Amino acid sequence: MSRRRTRHIPLLRRSGGILPRLLALPALGLLVACNGNSAIVEHAPRVGSAETLYNHGVDALRSNRYVLATIQFDVLQRNYPYSQYTANAQLMEGYSDYLQSKYPEAVQQLDRFLELHPTSSDAAYAFYLRALCYYEQIADVQRDQQGTVESMDALEEVITRFPQTPYARDAQLKIDLCRDHLAGKEMLVGRFYQEQRNYQAAVNRYQRVVQDFQTTNHVPEALERLVEVYLDLGLLEQARKTGAVLAYNYPDSKWYRDAYDHLRDHHLIKGVPPHASKQGRNAFSRAWHSVF
């Protein structure tokens, strides 16, 4: 599944107070303190003030020096555990780990932040970034999809806890992509079983796509392949009914044309294919359950 890494950043603080939430990483330049020289060299930082360490970490993030940023935020937390910058440094270290694709480390850091600051105004962002860490680890459909399930669980937690936030809206979009990914895995396994003539196992996979992933783009193919398998099994009435569901919901699809040809070859259908239905998803559910 093709994904673009999200570059949202958390709320950032400086001694002057709280700045607006920023969603573009280059805007981090606004946060560097006006302390003269802000140049950063690539070695462990001297232990300056908490503010200096924090702003140097932000500056390192801005220049894509993520390892140095992580070091700055970590030194701050170790030397100033009760500073006003410490909580946000924890969050920013998690973000820095995320940008380095160090997802387990980022999750660990974000879990620590949420454990220590459960009522923080940045909690929504922390839960969202944590979910993204799982989302970025989703494997190709050829591999085990436990990571996809974990990603969906984390994204659903964002929606449940913070339903009125932009994070919830984006989480819902990503859940839809996860569901499409899971449906793709079912189709991959179903095709394998069908090629091996393990027809009942193939039917189980295709039916799961139709019943559990109705909003994905894999449903038309699943229905068409059910028609094929039912015909191979000699279940002609099942094949005809499945073809009727496919015709009702996806009459203009390639998969219906293929199913139509198969059914016609078995003398189970004749005439001109019906026109497209405007009934929508609920009609699909009614059509499926009315014939099975």
Explain the layout of strands and helices.
Elements: E1 13-14, E2 17-18, H1 50-62, H2 66-79, H3 86-99, H4 103-116, H5 123-135, H6 146-161, H7 166-195, H8 199-212, H9 219-233, H10 236-249, H11 254-265, H12 281-291
Antiparallel strand pairs: 1-2
Helix pairs in contact: 1-2, 1-3, 2-3, 3-4, 4-5, 5-6, 5-7, 6-7, 7-8, 8-9, 9-10, 9-11, 10-11, 10-12
Subcellular location: Cell outer membrane
Function: Part of the outer membrane protein assembly complex, which is involved in assembly and insertion of beta-barrel proteins into the outer membrane.
TPR repeats: 87-120
Write up what this structure looks like.
- This protein has 292 residues and is mostly helical.
- It has two domains: 1-117, Tetratricopeptide repeat domain (Serine Threonine Protein Phosphatase 5, Tetratricopeptide repeat, Alpha Horseshoe); 200-291.
- 62% of the residues lie in helices and 1% in strands.
- A two-stranded antiparallel ribbon has the order 1-2.
- A hairpin with a 2-residue loop joins strand 1 and strand 2.
- Helix 4 packs antiparallel against helix 5 (123-135) and helix 6 packs antiparallel against helix 7 (166-195).
- The longest helix has 30 residues, at 166-195.
- The chain is elongated, with a radius of gyration of 26 Å.
- Mean pLDDT is 82; it is low at 11-42.
